[in-house]
Design a protein that fits this description.
The structure holds two protein chains of two kinds. By secondary structure, chain A is mainly α. Chain A has two domains: 2-78, no CATH class; 91-305, MetI-like (MetI-like fold), CATH 1.10.3720. Chain A has 13 helices and no strands. In chain A, helix 1 packs antiparallel against helix 13 (277-305) and helix 5 packs antiparallel against helix 6. Chain A is flat, with a radius of gyration of 24 Å. Chain B has helices spanning 3-17, 38-47, 50-67, 104-140, 142-156, 160-169, 176-191, 193-207, 210-217, 222-259, 270-279, 286-313. Classes of the chains: A mainly alpha, B mainly alpha. At the A-B interface, helix 1, helix 6, helix 7, helix 11 and helix 12 of A face helix 5, helix 6, helix 10, helix 11 and helix 12 of B.
């Protein structure tokens, strides 16, 4: 167990350096003028050029210079110093204001996935091959197949603009009600996956030997399902939802952009549109770290929750 | 229908069909019920699956649309007049005109080509990378497998959309083909991991088979065994995964174009049109709904096709 965690941690460190190296190499190094690449299409004044050259140690050349600058970037990333966006705001401040909104949205999405996905999955798993089961399979396939860039604007148009059931956009201080529709859109994908996972897991466990033993002891079906089957079936679901929370926090670029929710994804969306290089790199770096850490936590959680899985 | 009934029904059909099987497969002497091959079994299941036929029909229609868009619409997608902005249906423009005064339907039809091209070539690139890496890892095992498996883990740990954003922001070329090539390249180098894992595990199963041992005893080298014996036998699961991947690559391309970093202006792509339609949805909804429907149907068609084939080949998963 300890060795597993250690190995997993080592793997994460590798992935961290791998991705940050790619991000860094692509944004700041390589061919062309790195300062111009940073500024996008805007003109750069000599004063700005001198400042940036000193700040990023661009006067050092060669491979050594590249790695010097790379470790400089990693160091400031680990210290939480993300630099400034092209508009002059501290990226750390932007993120600090954005995280609570994104977290709220992610939690709503997760709640939608748990309430509808897991409960429907349990029913579908118990009544396998029934009409309910088959229709959920088709429905989840539809949800999994429709991209968010279709789902989000269409939901916004029909539910927000045409029938006016929900506010079509969230403002700068979004209420729970304003976040509900984006939360449902964002959660629908996790809902479909959670449903399928729960269904397979319940169906598999219902055929396990311990269920037969419980039945032959004369237990009623309700008790077998709630006490014996659910406990074992929900292990993979819990870990999936854990990974999903990490994904939701980093994957809400489209949803937040479409619904105008001032979260992390929205800032990234805006950064891409306005060609704000430092803002994009800063946010992507942080999101990659969030993604890697949440994956690690969930893998370890999985090992703790399910002792049947052995790791060497 | 219970599992037992399904099995009984297929056995009855097999009995009725008698010994005449597919040509080319050796008949077992003295056995009236020739055991069906896995592919034969799968084809039987597929033939009765309506989802398979619907998705196959959609794939064929969209492929034709990509090859010959002129057959599906008489109007040019670039024939735009601002005076027709958001005008209703008229003439050949069955869904009216968009913000720029272009034929909405015609643009959606012409957008098929770029989407399918990116999806198909990215899936092809993914397939090649996955086959090479999966084959090497599965066949040689030991340290080769250890190293390549860690590489797969690391690449799998990179979030696709974020990495694609960073990679594509770097591409400054404005030429059409360069942008299409860049999107294909980015999707291929980020999306090969799942397929590589599938190839690896099927190669591991295949290399333990008797025919591999026989080939080795006859003096075949590693290269020949991999190419002639293991590859054909581990291709089927990879193709299924790649069909599904093709659908998700089309979705990824549209997402990147939607964000404004995928395909750009002279190239017609659904992602961009959805973005423009979304911004003007209060004035007119069809320029949003039509490309959205095209995109959703295409992605769904490939994902459902792959799903149906996988279910047929591996009924245990259901």
């Amino acid at each position: 167990m300890f060795r597993y965690i250690l190995r997993r941690l080592l793997q994460m460190v590798l992935a961290f350096f791998g991705t940050t190296l790619i991000v860094y190499a692509l944004m700041f190094a390589g061919q062309g003028d790195p300062i111009q690449a940073l500024a996008g299409e805007r003109p750069v004044t000599p004063a700005q050029r001198a400042y940036l050259t000193e700040k990023y140690h661009l006067d050092a050349t060669g491979v050594g210079g590249f790695f010097y600058r790379y470790f400089d970037y990693v160091k400031s990333l680990l210290q939480g110093d993300l630099g400034q966006s092209l508009t002059g705001r501290q990226i750390g401040d932007i993120l600090q204001a954005a995280w609570p909104v994104t977290l709220k949205l992610a939690l709503i999405a997760l709640a939608v996935a748990i309430i509808f996905g897991v409960s429907a999955g349990v029913v579908a798993g118990i009544r396998r091959a029934s009409i309910f089961d088959n229709s959920t399979l088709v429905l989840t396939l539809l949800v999994l197949g429709i991209p968010t860039i279709v789902l989000a604007p269409i939901a916004q148009y029909f539910l927000g603009v045409k029938w006016q059931l929900f506010p079509p956009t969230a403002g700068s201080q979004p209420t729970f009600y304003a976040l509900l529709l984006p939360g449902i859109v964002l959660g629908s994908l996790s809902l479909a996956t959670a449903l399928r996972l729960t269904r397979t897991s319940v169906a598999e466990n219902l055929r396990a030997d311990y269920v037969r033993t419980a039945r032959s002891k004369g237990l009623v079906k309700r008790r077998i399902v709630t006490v014996h089957v659910l406990r074992n079936s929900l292990i993979p679901v819990v870990t999936f939802l854990g990974v999903e929370l990490g994904n939701l926090m980093s994957g809400a670029i489209i949803t937040e952009g479409v619904f105008n929710i001032p979260g992390v994804g929205f800032n990234l969306f805006r950064g891409i549109r306005t060609e704000d290089g430092p803002l994009v790199v800063g946010i992507v770096s942080v999101l990659v770290v969030v993604y890697l850490v949440s994956n690690l936590v969930v893998d370890v959680l999985y090992a703790v929750l399910d002792p049947r899985i052995r790791y060497e | 229908m219970s599992d037992f009934e399904t099995v009984a029904a297929t056995e009855n059909q097999a009995a009725r069909r008698g010994p005449s099987g597919e040509p080319g497969t050796p008949n077992q002497v003295g056995a009236p019920n020739k055991p069906r091959s896995l592919a034969g079994d799968a084809w039987r299941d597929l033939r009765r699956n309506p989802i398979f036929w619907i998705s196959l029909a959609l794939v064929v229609i969209f492929t034709l649309m990509a090859l010959a868009p002129g057959v599906f619409t008489a109007n040019s997608p670039n024939d735009c007049l601002l005076s027709r902005q958001h005008a209703g249906p008229s003439g050949g423009a069955i869904f009216g005109y968009d913000f720029q005064g272009c034929d909405t339907y015609s643009r959606a039809v012409y957008g098929t080509r770029a989407s399918l091209l990116v999806g198909a070539l990215a899936a092809l690139g993914t397939g090649i990378i996955a086959l090479v890496i999966g084959m090497l890892a599965g066949y040689f095992g030991r340290w080769v497998d250890a190293v390549l498996s860690r590489v797969i883990d690391v690449v799998l740990g990179i979030p696709l959309l974020l990495a694609a954003i960073v990679l594509l922001k770097r591409v400054s070329s404005e030429s059409d083909n360069a942008r299409i090539a860049a999107v294909i390249f980015v999707l291929a180098i980020l999306g090969w991991t799942t397929a590589a894992r599938v190839v690896r595990s099927s190669v591991i199963t295949a290399k333990e088979q008797d025919y591999v041992a026989a080939a080795r005893m006859l003096g075949a080298g590693n290269g020949r065994i991999m190419w002639r014996h293991i590859l054909p036998n581990s291709l089927a699961p990879a193709i299924v995964v790649l069909t599904i991947a093709l659908g998700s690559f089309i979705a990824a391309e549209a997402t990147l174009s939607f964000l404004g970093i995928g395909l750009k202006a002279p190239t017609i792509s659904w992602g961009q049109d959805i973005d423009t339609g979304r911004i003007h949805m209060r004035e007119a909804a069809t320029p949003l709904i039509v490309p959205s429907a095209f995109l959703a149907l295409t992605v769904l068609a490939f994902i459902m096709l792959g799903d149906a084939i996988r279910d047929a080949f591996d009924p245990k998963l259901r």
